[in-house]
Amino acid sequence: QVQLVESGGGLVQPGGSLRLSCAASGFTFNNYVMRWYRQAPGKERELVAGITSTGGGTTYADSVKGRFTISRDNAKNMVTLQMNSLKPEDTAVYYCNAVRVNSAMAYWGKGTLVTVSS
Asked: What's the pLDDT tens digit per position in 33-91?
């Protein structure tokens, strides 16, 4: 059974940091590109960051460049998103996404809520 389980969300003050994790199981993790998306209230889901199957390449939304870092551990089937210098506009539900290389097959986690507020 395929599972993507996010953790690490919570309430943080502006300027603070959080580290999100996504534990994957039920599929061959190192065959999949991993991405983090987020969806703020009343807004469409947007891509935040992505990392290639080997971890050799990353991509970021302009809004998070220089503040967020995506990484993966293929031995542990885990992808993380380190979020620094958080802003109120980073408040959203963050979702882990897996897309098989050269395929449309994709999986989603259920999300973890990040709230940035004083």
From this structure: 999 999 999 999 999 999 999 999 999 999 999 999 999 999 999 999 999 999 999 99
Mean pLDDT (the chain) is: 97
Quick one: tokens of 75? 């031995």
| Whether the Cβ atoms of residue 50 and residue 33 lie closer than 8 Å to each other | yes
Q: Is 47 exposed, middle or buried (0-12, 13-18, 19+ CB in 10 A)?
A: middle
- pLDDT given for residue 95 in this prediction: 98
Residue 31 vs residues 75, 89, 95: alpha-carbon distances, Å? 12, 33, 19
Burial level of 34, CB count in 10 A (0-12/13-18/19+)?
Answer: buried
The number of angstroms, rounded, from the C-alpha of 50 to the middle of its chain's C-alpha atoms is 8
Contact by Cβ (8 Å): 7, 111: no
Give me the numbers of helices (H) and strands (E) for the chain, helices first please: 0, 11
